[in-house]
């Protein structure tokens, strides 16, 4: 703008035609650069966030001459634009002076509404935007008008939480599943669901009814057998995460602005995985219903980064529910959809605090249990389901299913509305986000509400004690530690170096695991990063070298009495083999 006012920048418009080519000619002493490609001259196009072709040629006389000819040919068809020499920044322009406002006055179409962005955390000055009132209504519903605050001189003030909504109203919408067109937004300290303010319950009766149904639902998992205690505990942790999920974007944004790794501190994805017939899908459906009503669910085919990014534009902070996602979505030798979506949250956190978390259920499969990449493990809230109903006990499965169906119809949203109100007060009063243990605070609040709303004869469940994030993280890694211990058995030990695929050997400092060429990458991706001695692993080919001390310490956190089963009489053979190799 300053260059244009000073005459240093000139603008032209092509008359009588359209020019779609993108050519950039840059010149300074000693360097002439030509860039040709599909990228528009915009931050998004040139940032690498969208697929573009952009070719650069430095001091290439042929390309320079040809592109200069092309530029001059376009320039000959263009007309210079005489811009106002007194162009001012948007915040210094009166609303009635905006081109859209003048156009509305001249054409006598007063439905043009001028909106001012105010109180944002975006860089630069507040800006104005002109939006047709009909677009506000048809595209976004009447609920958006609740956000707009009248101001003098025909300007309406729009809070930050609604800016993205206006962008979507005036921009073409990508394709999205119609069932996902619900939204939840955090406005002025309160939540608005589909344009309706979530009110605090007027009486305690509804809260008590919901609390009883929730405890009865999770108590029902006692019938799943000996390991049902762990199943109930994990499901209560999932409840704590799901209930807190609308607050995760706001706190993640704060952590990001403070320079912290937000997506690892506050996981944006919850994945319930493990055996089938263990109630994962039913629990997620029930918990979501207790929050916002019956859930619109997404399928396995929609669990892709491109589909997720489109849906994320409308949901606000309303979690997306993906049911029966295939294990292969989280496995593979290269980046998979689970990794891509987990990393995509880094981008969302860097630009907004208004995006949805995701809840995924995945049935048993080798990939689902053993091949979560470390990026997924480190950035996700993993809930393992260790126990399912016997698939041949159809009578029991049908009985439990018939018992829980009425609860889905009877559960209301009063319990969660009270949770939202109290948690919002707690989050708003936070002074140190880094020290905030979201899982403990969430599960502790749920337990407090249980105590307050259940009747004296209705016992607060044993599985409902508060969980810390550190405590649950140890639980989440327990399965991985058990799997590694199961591989490091004496019957799979060999004294040979290197060990064949599927077997292992050890020295005083290392554990060497043999893998074939297909499994090499998968095995390394599924193991904790700090286990792998990378400089040695990359040199050995089809073997993974692990730091013995790190592996032993990790497994012993889950199994304190565990020791590496290395037969002493066979270590001597290995030592002699290694000594001979060093000598040669």
Short descriptors:
single chain, 584 residues, alpha/beta, five-stranded parallel β-sheet, four-stranded mixed β-sheet, 23 helices, 43% helix
Summarize the structure.
By secondary structure, the protein is α/β, with parallel strands linked by helices.
Characterize the structure shown.
The chain has 584 residues and is an alpha/beta fold. Helices cover 43% and strands 15% of the residues. Helix 13 links the parallel strand 15 and strand 16. Helix 7 packs antiparallel against helix 11, helix 7 crosses helix 17 and helix 8 packs parallel to helix 11. The chain is globular, with a radius of gyration of 30 Å.
Give the helix proportion (percent range): 40-55%
Largest sheet: 5 strands, parallel
What quaternary form is this?
A: single chain
Secondary structure tally, helices: 23
- The helix/strand class is alpha/beta
How big is the Rg? 30 Å
SSE map:
Layout: H1 2-5, E1 12-14, E2 22-28, E3 31-37, H2 43-46, E4 54-58, H3 61-76, E5 78-80, H4 99-106, E6 112-117, E7 128-132, H5 133-140, E8 149-150, E9 155-158, H6 163-170, E10 184-187, E11 190-193, E12 196-197, H7 205-219, H8 228-244, H9 248-257, H10 262-265, E13 269-274, H11 280-292, E14 297-298, H12 305-315, E15 320-322, H13 337-351, E16 358-362, H14 366-370, H15 374-379, E17 380-385, H16 394-410, H17 414-428, H18 438-453, H19 469-487, E18 504-506, E19 510-514, H20 520-526, H21 534-540, E20 543-547, H22 548-558, H23 568-583
Parallel strand pairs: 6-9, 13-16, 13-17, 14-15, 15-16
Antiparallel strand pairs: 1-5, 2-3, 3-4, 6-7, 8-9, 10-11, 11-12, 18-19, 19-20
Helix pairs in contact: 5-6, 7-11, 7-17, 7-18, 8-11, 8-18, 17-18, 19-22
């Amino acid at each position: 703008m300053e260059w244009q006012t000073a005459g240093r920048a000139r603008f032209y418009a092509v008359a009588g035609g359209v020019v779609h080519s993108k050519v950039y000619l840059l010149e300074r002493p000693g360097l002439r650069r030509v860039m040709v490609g599909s990228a528009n001259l915009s931050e998004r196009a040139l940032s690498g966030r969208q697929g573009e072709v952009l070719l650069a040629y430095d001091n290439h006389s042929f390309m320079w001459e040809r592109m200069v000819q092309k530029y001059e040919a376009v320039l000959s068809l263009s007309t210079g634009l005489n811009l106002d020499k007194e162009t001012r920044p948007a915040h210094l322009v009166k609303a009635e002076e905006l081109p859209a406002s003048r156009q509305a006055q001249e054409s006598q179409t007063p439905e043009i509404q001028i909106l001012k962005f105010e109180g944002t955390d975006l860089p630069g000055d507040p800006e104005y935007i002109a939006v047709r009132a009909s677009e506000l209504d048809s595209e976004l519903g009447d609920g958006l008008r609740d956000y707009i605050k009248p101001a003098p001189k025909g300007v309406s003030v729009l809070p930050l939480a609604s800016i993205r909504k206006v962008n979507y109203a005036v921009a073409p919408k990508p394709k999205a599943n119609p069932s996902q067109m619900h939204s939840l937004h955090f406005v002025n300290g309160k939540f608005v669901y589909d344009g309706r303010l979530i009110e605090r319950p007027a009486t305690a009766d509804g809260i008590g009814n919901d609390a009883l149904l929730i405890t009865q639902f999770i108590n029902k998992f006692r019938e799943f057998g000996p390991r049902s205690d762990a199943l109930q505990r994990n499901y209560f942790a999932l409840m704590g995460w799901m209930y807190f999920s609308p607050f995760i974007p706001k706190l993640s944004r704060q952590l990001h602005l403070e320079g912290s790794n937000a997506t690892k501190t506050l996981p944006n994805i919850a994945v319930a995985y493990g055996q089938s017939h263990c109630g994962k899908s039913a629990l997620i459906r029930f918990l979501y219903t207790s929050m916002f009503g019956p859930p619109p669910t997404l399928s396995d085919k929609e669990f892709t980064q491109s589909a997720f990014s489109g849906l994320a534009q409308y949901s606000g902070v309303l979690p997306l529910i993906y049911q029966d996602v295939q294990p292969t979505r989280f496995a593979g030798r290269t980046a998979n959809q689970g990794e891509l979506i987990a990393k995509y949250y880094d981008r969302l956190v860097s630009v907004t605090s208004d995006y949805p978390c995701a809840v995924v259920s995945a049935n048993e499969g080798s990939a689902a249990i053993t091949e979560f990449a470390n990026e997924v493990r480190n950035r996700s809230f993993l809930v393992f389901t260790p126990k399912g109903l016997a698939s041949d006990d159809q009578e029991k499965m049908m009985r439990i299913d018939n018992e829980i169906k009425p609860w889905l119809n009877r559960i209301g949203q009063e319990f969660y509305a009270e949770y939202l109100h109290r948690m919002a007060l707690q989050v708003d009063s936070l002074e140190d986000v880094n020290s905030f243990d979201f899982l403990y605070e969430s599960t502790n609040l749920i337990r407090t509400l249980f105590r307050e709303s259940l009747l004296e004869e209705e016992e607060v469940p044993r599985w409902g004690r508060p969980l810390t994030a550190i405590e649950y993280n140890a639980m989440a890694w327990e399965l991985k530690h058990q799997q590694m211990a199961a591989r490091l058995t004496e019957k799979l030990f060999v004294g040979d170096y290197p060990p064949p695929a599927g077997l292992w050997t050890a020295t005083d400092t290392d554990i060497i695991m043999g893998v074939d060429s297909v499994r090499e990458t998968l095995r390394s991706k599924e193991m904790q990063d700090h286990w792998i001695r990378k400089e040695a692993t990359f040199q050995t080919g089809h073997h993974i070298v692990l730091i013995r001390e790190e592996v032993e310490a990790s497994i012993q956190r889950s199994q304190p009495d565990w020791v590496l089963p290395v037969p002493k009489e066979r270590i001597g053979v290995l030592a002699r083999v290694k000594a001979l190799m060093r000598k040669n």
